[in-house]
């Protein structure tokens, strides 16, 4: 099938983009197009206007600032994965990006596009949830910063208003030497994950956990932080971490079900994968002690 008819727009600046969003009804932004174009071809979406933002260079790039690491929304996934800044400061994001599609799709797909599309199985939004990322959005009322906790509004729905666009994502790196782990299950490498999980831990000089983040994705309509389980990890010694309560917390979620995967199967995977991610995190910390 082919996409339904639409008018094509190609702004050259953020100002032109903002003007188009303010004046056009039923418009969609195309970034990398890895999700949007198949949806158009399958007639899942039928916008009257398509706004191509690939010619706005200031929307891309990776920068270290006093507020953290900023990644332009139009940064290609391949560029983020290969960035020394990301590998050194945000290793969990780099680890997750290795599971995103294939080199061909990563070379075109953008981190901002994935975080606006919000497929439940997408790795990048899940890592944003784990790292408490901030989303910098621009619209008619100026710029606003949206916390990760407020970004997810349900299945394929972000906090962006119709006249806003995502300009950049901001991350505050965890302490040097922190532990991290990532695990997902897909039928084949590069396929959409059926479920996945990520973990982050910081410890003090006595190997006692002082900070934790746990996230499960692909199970519910949005990534889910396991806040109570995180709190339960604080104060535990890294070599004595109780994994079973974390697994139980993941299996207490309310999984989605579809024609291919039952809710029980996703529930089972949630527990298995968060356990793997947590054990990998602990292993990294143990080796660094």
Tags for this entry?
3 domains; globular; Uridine Diphospho-n-acetylenolpyruvylglucosamine Reductase, domain 2; 289 residues; Uridine Diphospho-n-acetylenolpyruvylglucosamine Reductase, domain 3; Enolase-like, domain 1
Please characterize this protein's 3D structure:
This protein is of the alpha+beta class and about 290 residues long. The chain has three domains: about 5-50, Uridine Diphospho-n-acetylenolpyruvylglucosamine Reductase, domain 2, CATH 3.30.43; about 60-170, Uridine Diphospho-n-acetylenolpyruvylglucosamine Reductase, domain 3; about 180-289, CO dehydrogenase flavoprotein, C-terminal domain (Enolase-like, domain 1), CATH 3.30.390.50. It is about 35% helix and about 25% strand. It has twelve helices and twelve strands. It has helices at about 15-25, 35-40, 75-80, 85-90, 90-95, 105, 110-115, 125-130, 150, 225-235, 245-250, 265-289; strands at about 5-10, 25-30, 50, 60-65, 70, 135-140, 140-145, 165-170, 180-185, 195-205, 210-215, 225. Strands 4-5-8-6-7 form a five-stranded antiparallel beta sheet. The protein has a four-stranded antiparallel beta sheet with strand order 9-10-11-12. Strand 2 (about 25-30), helix 2 (about 35-40) and strand 3 (about 50) form a beta-alpha-beta unit. Helix 11 packs antiparallel against helix 12 (about 265-289). It is globular. It starts with 6 loop residues before the first strand and ends with a helix. The model has no long low-confidence stretch (mean pLDDT about 95).
| Strand segment tally | 12
- Residue-averaged pLDDT, rounded? 96
User: Low-confidence runs (pLDDT<50, min 5 residues)?
Assistant: none
According to CATH, what is the class of the largest domain?
Alpha Beta
What's the domain count? 3
Shape: globular
Seen as an oligomer or otherwise, the chain set is: single chain
CA(first)-CA(last) distance = 56 Å
Tell me the helix content.
25-40%
């Amino acid at each position: 099938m082919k996409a339904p008819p639409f008018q094509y727009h190609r702004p050259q600046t953020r100002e032109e983009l903002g003007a188009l969003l303010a004046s056009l009804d039923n418009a969609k932004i195309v970034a990398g197009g890895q999700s949007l174009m198949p949806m158009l071809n399958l007639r899942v979406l039928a916008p009257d206007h398509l706004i191509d933002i690939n010619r706005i260079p200031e929307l891309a790039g990776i920068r270290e600032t006093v507020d953290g690491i900023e990644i332009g929304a139009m940064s290609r996934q391949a560029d983020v994965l290969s960035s020394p800044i990301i590998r050194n400061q945000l290793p969990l994001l780099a680890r997750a990006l290795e599971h995103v599609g294939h080199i061909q799709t990563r070379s075109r797909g953008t981190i901002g596009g994935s975080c606006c599309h919000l497929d439940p199985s997408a790795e990048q939004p899940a890592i944003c949830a784990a790292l408490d990322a901030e989303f910098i959005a621009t619209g008619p009322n100026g710029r606003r910063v949206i916390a990760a906790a407020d970004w997810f509004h349900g299945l394929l729905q972000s906090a962006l208003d119709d006249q806003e666009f995502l300009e950049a994502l901001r991350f505050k790196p965890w302490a040097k030497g922190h532990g991290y782990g990532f695990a997902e299950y897909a039928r084949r490498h590069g396929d959409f994950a059926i479920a996945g999980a990520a973990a982050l831990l910081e410890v003090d000089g006595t190997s006692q956990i002082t900070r934790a983040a746990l996230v499960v994705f692909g199970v519910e309509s949005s990534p889910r932080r396991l806040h109570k389980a995180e709190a339960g990890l604080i104060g535990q010694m890294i070599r004595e971490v109780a994994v079973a309560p974390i697994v139980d917390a993941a299996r207490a979620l309310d999984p989605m079900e579809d024609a291919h995967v039952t809710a029980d199967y996703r529930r089972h995977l949630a527990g298995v994968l968060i356990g793997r991610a947590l054990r990998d995190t602990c292993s990294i910390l143990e080796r660094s002690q």
